[in-house]
């Protein structure tokens, strides 16, 4: 697997990932078609946004894991205030999808792949849903085993009793 070409392919993969996330919304919310899901994302429907974000988180985590053998697991965090909806009703945008990626080591290559994913997803989401371009779709924090064991930064969240993240992918 050529890592450089894989990163370039992320732009195309983002379209497929977003299409699958919308299809997952159609299935989960029992909608008639994808256009209804897109319209409900545009309207800021919190249930559709939540399903879309969860699907995107699972798919992005699986792709990151396929691209980087150092990744051991990925977790979806919901640490925004509970009163905040998962979509902005005015703009119909998803808030950033908060992921904690546990890796054996933090690398610049992983950071570059995450940034490429974020740009590609953000651009495609804006094209599909409209309402302006969100600042970013992904908020990915990478932690290593030392961060987890010593409960440093985002590593502490993996064993938190109050803000426990949801595992969305594991090697």
Give structural attributes.
50% helix; 171 residues; 4-stranded mixed beta sheet
Describe the structure.
Helices cover 50% and strands 17% of the residues. It has 171 residues and is α+β, with helices and mostly antiparallel strands. The chain has one domain. The strands form 2 sheets. A 4-stranded mixed sheet has the order 5-4-1-6. A two-stranded antiparallel sheet has the order 2-3. Helix 1 crosses helix 2 (34-43) and helix 1 crosses helix 4. It is globular and about 45 Å long. Mean pLDDT is 84; it is low at 81-86 and 88-93.
Question: TL;DR?
Answer:
This protein is of the alpha+beta class. It has one domain (3-170). It has five helices and six strands; from the N terminus they run H-H-H-E-E-E-E-H-E-H-E.
Strand and helix map with partners:
Elements: H1 3-29, H2 34-43, H3 46-67, E1 71-77, E2 87-88, E3 93-94, E4 97-103, H4 108-129, E5 138-143, H5 145-149, E6 166-170
Parallel strand pairs: 4-5
Antiparallel strand pairs: 1-4, 1-6, 2-3
Helix pairs in contact: 1-2, 1-3, 1-4
